[in-house]
Structure formats: C-alpha cells, structure tokens
Amino acid sequence: MGNLSNFVKRVRDIMRNDAGINGDAQRIEQIAWMLFLKVYDSKEDEWNTTFDSKESYQSIIPESCRWRNWAHAKNGKGMTGDTLLEFVNNTLFPTLKKLPVDASTPIKKAIVQTTFADANNYMKDGVLLRQIINEIDDIKFDEYEESRVFAGIYETILRELQSAGSAGEFYTPRAVTDFMAQMIDPQIGEKMADFACGTGGFLTSWLKVLRQKIQTTTDENLCNNSIYGVEKKQFPYILCITNMLLHDVDVPQVFHDNTLLRDVLDYTEDDQVDVILMNPPYGGSEKPEIKNHFPADLASSETADLFMSVIMYRLKENGRAAVILPDGFLFGTDNAKVAIKTKLFSEFNVHTIIRMPGSVFSPYTSITTNILFFDHTGPTEETWFYRLDMPKGYKHFSKTKPMKLEHFAPAVEWWRDRKEIQLDGFGKAKKYTVQEIKDRNYNIDLCGYPHEEEEILPPKELIQQYQEKRASLNADIDRILAQITEILGIDLDAQD
C-alpha cells in the first residue's frame, strides 16, 4: 500500500459521500467488518502453511464468501455497484451470520460467526463500497513491517471512538491502559482478564508488557494464551477480535457475552484468574433482574458496582487487580456501595488509589475517574492515595492534546518511593489506615482536586456532576452528624 499514514483520511473522505453512513460511529463500524475479513483472510493463509495435520486447512467460510474470492479485484476488476451491494447484503452477511458453529468449533473459526452475528452494512453506494474495499485490500498483512505499521493505524481508528458520541464508552486511552499494565507487572504463565473488554485496550497493553519477558517458544505460547475477554456489545466486540488478530493472537479468547448474566456465587476456582485489568461501564444501569445474580447486599443498580463484585469473586488468591472507577464509587455511601467497599477492604489489600484528572476521557465524558490497585493477599491495613495533576502547559486533555504515558511519570516516580505530599495546603499524596477509612463510612474521596475550573458541560453530564457532588456532601454530613449524635448519646431514631 502506497501511503498507510493517510488510510483513515482516504476512507473517511470516501464514506462522506455515501448516504447510508451517519456519523463517525457508523463509519468505524463499517470499516470494522471489512478489516476483520481482510485480516482473517491473511491469517488463514498463515494457518494453512502451519497446519499440522495430514489434511489441509479448511476454512469455515464458504469459498464464495472468502475475502480473496469476492473482495480482491483480480486484474484490477472486481464486483462493484449494485452487483456488489446485492452480494454483500443478500449473500455475504446472511451466510456469515448463519455459519454452523457449536461447542466443538475451534475458537479461531467460531469468531467469524460471532463477529457477524449483529454486524451491519450501512453503505448504499456500491461504487463507493468498492473504493473502500480496494483501499483495505491494498494492505499487505502478510508483510511484517506493513502489518506492524497498520496495527498503529488501527489504534488511531479506535481512538476516534472517543469523539464518536456514546461509542466513546468502548475506548480507554492507551496511556491509561499502558500505565496500569506496567504497574501490575505481568508475569509469564499468568492469566489476565477483562470482563467488559471493549476494543481490547487492556488486553493489548498486557501483551505489550508481557512480550518483553518472552525468552522461549513456550513463553510465547503462554503469552498468546494469557488473555481472556468478554464484551456484551457487537460493535466493540468485532473491533476487539480484529485488534487481537492484528497483535498476532491467533486464538483470541474473547467472547461476545454479558458477564453480569451469571450468578457470582456460582463461580469456582476454575473461573478465577491471576490478574484483572478493567474499566467497567459506569453511569448506566442494567435490567432489574440482573441484580438477582448478586447477593442482596451487593445488588447495586450501578453497573460499575456490579462489576466490582464480579472482580472480587473472580480474582485468585494472591491475584492482582487494577480497576478504573468514577468518583461516585469513592464517596458513595448508599447501602450497596458501602457493602461492596466493606467486602473489598476486608478481604482484599487495597494498597493504592490513583486519582486522575477529569478530562482523561474527554471529549466522551468529563467525569473524574480513579484507578484502584488491590491484591487478594489479605485484608487492607493501609491505603495510599495519590493525585495525578495535569501536566505543565495543559488546562485539560482533548482530542488534539490527549493524555500520554509520560504524563504518568510523576506517579511512577512516587510509586517507587512513597511519601506524603502537601501541595498548596492540600494533600496530594497521603496514607490512610483502614480504621480511618471505616470511620468515614468508606467515603474514600481523599486527596482530590482542590481547584476546579468552571467548565461548560452538556446538560446530562452537568446533572450527573451535580448529583455526584450532592451525594458527596450528603455523605459527609451524615458521617459528621452520626459522630456528633454518638458523642452526645442521642438516638435520633427514637425522637418524634
């Protein structure tokens, strides 16, 4: 391909002329299924040459629907216009959606059917569709260097999800996933999981760090089989599967499913993993019946809370976890949140909480988030809080000025040599005992940001921000009131 660096721009410009594409999210989804088929076709060539059976490799995709036979333009000619649209809409998609898959189907073959189960072709102009296909077909995934370059370009495509409306929920900035993977320190032989994996950012960051430790072919096999992911929504699932194939994970153990549909009490040691890296969905809620899969005291209506319970039930003894959670989890003192945090601090060692600036996920959301690091080695005795401030020259992060891994450098330096830090009269880094945390009724809104600049937010986010601030204030008032009444010996419940 002549110019990989302009691939995204060229494809975007072509799609803007198609009446069927409405917005960035649909554009990326359209690219996704075509890229998957092209990457998968290249992988099948590779699998065919390494097939260790007396029989030749057999594709699960019928010959007429393999990329090489319908998309590749032989002698510069290929289906186009209405003929191409007719084939894609009435042959390709129906065939791939109904591929024969059962429990015995190898993962590397089953992923084709699950990838296309809910996929869509949005384009209505067959000539423009042919132009997009030609752009993708020009990429030579069988050439190592070009494949590596495109893996970086694919990351650009994923990053654009942050500005694609609600689709941004599927993408965690790579600076954040890379930092978390580095601090968790992957080891050869460990199994890592993300139970709401989105586009696979944590999975790729884990592999990036772990592959630096490979010394033997056994290590390499263990590395490539070290990840486990689950994603509920079709769009990010197809992006994640393609991401794994681009990162040379030939058998991606990533499943199109909803983690919250299984009773947490049914998990056994076989379901547990060594490491969990996650950014659970937050700000939303699941169907009421989902709560039935959790013990009554942990049955929250907030999605992130439910995932925290799943994480606690699925982390092995001596296992490690790093999880992104919104401020609402930290200061929330409703019954379910307190029960979850009580279980977390009494059964796990919550050793570090990194507080991140509010615009890390901008422009998708300005809600402030935090990274909780904990391990399954025993109850918490003390917890360090560290506030990561905006880097010099930044008022906030944005699409053109995103967060970079180097911005975590102060946190990494502090991590290795921990000490309490006061800045402008406010705690930037401080250690609290578990008793101090209990005394606050598990309101762990500590070492926060003292100076907040006024920012104009969309109405929905503004309302949510006010609700979170009110909840935090109410929690503090309730805690102080409880302390006063205890000191005075007053039983408010007994008052008229």
UniProtKB/TrEMBL annotation:
Catalytic reaction annotation: a 2'-deoxyadenosine in DNA + S-adenosyl-L-methionine = an N(6)-methyl-2'-deoxyadenosine in DNA + S-adenosyl-L-homocysteine + H(+)
Enzyme Commission no: 2.1.1.72
Coiled coil region boundaries: none
Keyword field: Methyltransferase, Restriction system, S-adenosyl-L-methionine, Transferase
Gene3D superfamilies: 1.20.1260.30, Vaccinia Virus protein VP39
Transmembrane segments: none
GO MF terms, alphabetically ordered: DNA binding; N-methyltransferase activity; site-specific DNA-methyltransferase (adenine-specific) activity
Lineage: Bacteria, Bacillati, Bacillota, Clostridia, Eubacteriales
GO BP: any one term: methylation
Key word Transport present: no
Organism of derivation: Faecalibacterium prausnitzii
PANTHER family assigned to the protein according to its UniProt record, in alphabetical order: SLR6095 PROTEIN, TYPE I RESTRICTION ENZYME ECOKI METHYLASE SUBUNIT
Descriptive protein name: site-specific DNA-methyltransferase (adenine-specific)
Top-rank lineage group of the source organism: Bacteria
Annotated family: Belongs to the N(4)/N(6)-methyltransferase family.
